[in-house]
Amino acid sequence: MVTSMTIENVIKRSCINLHMKGRNKKEIIEEMADMFDRAGVLASRNLFIRAVYEREGEGPTGIGNQVAIPHGKSDAVLKTAMAVGRVDQGVEWETLGEGDTRAFVMFAVNSGDKSELVSLLSQVAVALCDDDVIETLLTTESEEEIFTLFNRKGET
């Protein structure tokens, strides 16, 4: 029997960057794909990026409060993983809220884990309902704090 994935199963410490350089959506997506690629998560960076853009075409992944949850499902993903990134200056991103986006929680999902995506997105959404989580995500300088923040919230 397959158990549901938790944030702890998929978050990669090497895929947390609190000072990304991207200045627009394209650069953010590419920079986060690079984190996954360096971590050995992707068989094809380009095919994964294509999957992210396909999902972006379906509707906003910005959830408000300066946070977006872009993601892509693809055979190009070797192992489902999560990355967290933040920029110092907000970027324009299609969002359900108002204003620019500064924090990004991205999932790279293996095509075989389709049902897991809903569970993972739900775990992150629950965590991001907490104002303290949002505040920490937008202000902390500790990558370890980000790692434990989502693990703690993902287990509730």
Describe the structure.
The chain is of the alpha/beta class. The chain has one domain (5-148): Mannitol-specific EII, Chain A (3-Layer(aba) Sandwich). The protein is 42% helix and 26% strand. The protein has six helices and six strands; from the N terminus they run αβααβββββααα. It has helices at residues 7-10, 25-38, 45-56, 114-128, 131-139, 143-154, and strands at residues 11-20, 62-64, 67-68, 71-74, 81-91, 101-110. Strands 1, 2, 3, 4, 5 and 6 form a six-stranded mixed beta sheet that branches. The longest helix is centred in the C-terminal third of the chain and has 15 residues, at 114-128. This is PTS EIIA type-2 domain-containing protein. InterPro entries: PTrfase/Anion_transptr, PTS_EIIA_type-2_dom, PTS_SugarTrans_NitroReg.
N-C termini distance? 22 Å
Shape from CA axes?
Answer: globular
Number of strands: 6
- Secondary-structure-based class equals alpha/beta
Kindly estimate the percentage of residues that lie in beta strands according to DSSP.
Answer: 25-35%
CATH topology label: Mannitol-specific EII, Chain A
Name the helix and strand elements from N-terminus to C-terminus, one letter apiece. HEHHEEEEEHHH
Give the CATH H-level superfamily.
Answer: Mannitol-specific EII, Chain A
| Integer count of domains | 1
Largest sheet: 6 strands, mixed
Number of helices: 6
Tell me which CATH architecture applies here: 3-Layer(aba) Sandwich
Give average pLDDT, whole number: 91
| Overall radius of gyration | 14 Å
For this structure, what is the CATH class? Alpha Beta
Unreliable spans:
none
Helix proportion of residues, in percent?
Answer: 40-55%
Protein name: PTS EIIA type-2 domain-containing protein
Domain PTS EIIA type-2: 9-153
